[in-house]
């Protein structure tokens, strides 16, 4: 196969895409199309910083790409494909706590009626009556993640931490969450080791925070509401009670401060609701409810 001139866009037209047969190519000495290093860097730089520029003003920012944040993003992006949805995830690897079921065991339990969502995104499961079991939590999370990332109106900025909220005060002294303050996570974790490393901002009329229950970076927005004087104190997540916890989280998903919706386990820290342990139906239901809350706010 003659080398492709570097100026040409090397993308085999769909009709030519055939199964790779490395042995066939290998006979003549396996070759890639030639490239200059600068082309690789510029391909990344152009796209990444264009996205940052374009998403400096988003319609909805979702903080946290765990099961609640991703379920919310999926439902919002499919329901309202015109919305510019920007997901900020502190870890390099999105997915939060949904890569395993519980105690490092891999199957994932999802109580009905949340199994409807599995059928919607095409994840197979075993039906156990009151609940279903996905053979590996990573099957759920990777499928959901792939669907969310394939949506043209969704952008994921991972390895990026929300390190503050933008809170505007109007002339009547009313406060509203109006965006997020971000930094690359490695920068956010090293403010004490380097001189000032000022952050970036993303403004949006609706922020949905899904940063999980308490932990090094967890319950971020709930805690910030307290330190910013918008919430008197945290309710603090209570002990495990599956039957109380799951409906409380789904039914409690709401706009907790003007412009800020809490979803998933972050809500348990805000409200003081119970935890449910290794069952994930409420994360799906809460994420979907948060999407509806966001639409309600945007449409009013
Ligand atoms: O998976 P999590 O932690 O949070 P949820 O609410 O999506 O799902 C919770 C669920 O996994 C459980 O905890 C289960 C049901 N167990 C309950 C129980 O009883 O123990 O995802 C939160 C995501 C993570 O990926 C974090 O990295 C990210 O949020 N994150 C942030 N991203 C950006 N900026 C931040 N400040 C930040 N803080 C957390």
UniProtKB/TrEMBL annotation:
Matches recorded under Pfam families: Thi4
- A cellular component term (GO) from this record? cytosol
* MF-aspect GO terms: cysteine-dependent adenosine diphosphate thiazole synthase activity; iron ion binding
Identify the residues that bind substrate.
Answer: 68, 89-90, 97, 162, 198, 213, 265, 275-277
Q: Where in the cell is it found?
A: Cytoplasm; Nucleus
Output the PTM entry: During the catalytic reaction, a sulfide is transferred from Cys-196 to a reaction intermediate, generating a dehydroalanine residue.
The cofactor named in the record is: Fe cation
**Gene Ontology BP annotations:** thiamine biosynthetic process; thiazole biosynthetic process
Name this polypeptide is given: Thiamine thiazole synthase
